[in-house]
Write a structure and sequence with these properties.
The longest helix is centred in the middle third of the chain and has 17 residues, at 105-121. This protein has helices at residues 4-8, 29-43, 58-68, 86-96, 105-121, 138-147, 167-173, 178-181, 195-208, 218-228, 232-248, 256-264; strands at residues 48-51, 74-79, 125-130, 159-164, 186-189. It folds into 2 domains: 24-189, Rossmann fold (3-Layer(aba) Sandwich), CATH 3.40.50.300; 193-264, Helicase, Ruva Protein, domain 3, CATH 1.10.8. It is built from 12 helices and 5 strands. It starts with a helix and ends in a 7-residue tail after the last helix. By secondary structure, it is an alpha/beta fold. It binds adenosine-5'-triphosphate and magnesium ion.
Length: 271
């Protein structure tokens, strides 16, 4: 059964849930640009780095890329468990690629690179999307540029898209990671949001959930923007708490007082 605020505001679903279809993602020009840059880089068989703060929308950008890239000719593989040593990392990659993981580190590496070469022969460009890449073990990071080496480093048969928090860039800039970093041609970041972005995002999510009118006042949106600090995940959390609180107070409009209550006190529901 749907939550009571969903019924109170006559929505079709919880407006700020993470279960949003790829085709419904919010793509303002700033995000669209990032999506296009990633797609372009992959089409050029290049390597990509994408960094941003927690909840800034990095994984959603990857989903938009998946939606946008032509299906034919590309094989996207998404890996998000970066907290593995080198051998287990490659074993995970094998599994994601539908290969049987071999026992030794050398054999798993061989299986992955062989698979990449076979796809190259079939004119399919594999793209490994490594999410949470700031968590990659150093021994995995040390090895990634070797995975990019085909035919005496003369063929670009694979695109790596490394995605993570800003620390990832700092790590890659270290001298020991230069072999990999120097191969990453596109270095992108998701920047901070302005208040109009927050307002547009909130409106879009509410509209997608069936709202046919404004639910948040302009000053409530300003307070929401300030509290969320450019994190869309924070916006989701705070906006949901505000809708819940307004429904509890039987108010059809989320005004500044309700928002102040939520952002000032992060345990709503007891006031
Ligand atoms: N473009 C978008 N359109 C719609 N909703 C979005 C978009 N980007 C982010 N969101 C919302 O914000 C939430 C967090 O986004 P996402 O998971 O992409 O952030 P992230 O940058 O990958 O965070 P983390 O660093 O914690 O992995 C999503 O679950 C979704 O609800
Ligand atoms: Mg993410």
């Amino acid at each position: 059964m749907s939550e009571s605020f969903v019924r109170f505001f006559a929505l079709s679903e919880a407006a700020f849930s993470k279960e949003i279809a790829d085709s419904d993602l919010w793509l303002p020009p700033s995000k669209q640009e990032v999506v296009e840059e990633v797609c372009e880089a992959v089409q050029e068989h290049a390597q990509v780095l994408l960094v941003g703060e927690p909840g800034a929308g990095k994984t959603c950008v990857l989903r938009a890329v998946r939606h946008r890239l032509p299906q034919a000719g590309y094989r996207l593989t998404y890996c998000h468990n970066a907290t593995l040593g080198r051998r287990d990392f490659y074993r995970q990659l094998c599994q994601a690629l539908g290969l049987t993981p071999a026992a030794t580190a050398a054999a798993v590496f061989y299986a992955v690179s062989n698979h990449v070469e076979n796809l190259g022969r079939d004119r399919i460009h594999p793209v490994f999307l490594l999410d949470e890449a700031h968590l990659l073990h150093q021994d995995t990071l040390d090895h990634l540029h070797i995975l990019l080496n085909y035919e005496w480093d003369s063929r670009a048969l694979l695109s790596l898209v490394l995605v993570g928090l800003s620390d990832l860039q700092d790590r890659l800039e270290l001298r020991k990671n230069r072999s990999l970093y120097s191969r990453i041609e596109r270095r992108l970041s998701i920047g901070p949001m302005v208040v109009d972005d927050t307002a547009e995002y909130v409106q879009l999510r509410l509209r997608r959930a069936g709202a046919d009118r404004e639910i948040f006042t302009a000053d409530a949106l300003t307070a929401l923007h300030e509290a969320a600090g450019s994190s869309l995940r924070e916006i989701d959390r705070i906006a949901t708490a505000a809708l819940r609180e307004a429904a509890r107070r039987k108010k059809k409009l989320v005004e500044r007082d309700v928002m102040a209550r939520i952002v000032g006190d992060l345990t709503p529901g007891d006031g």
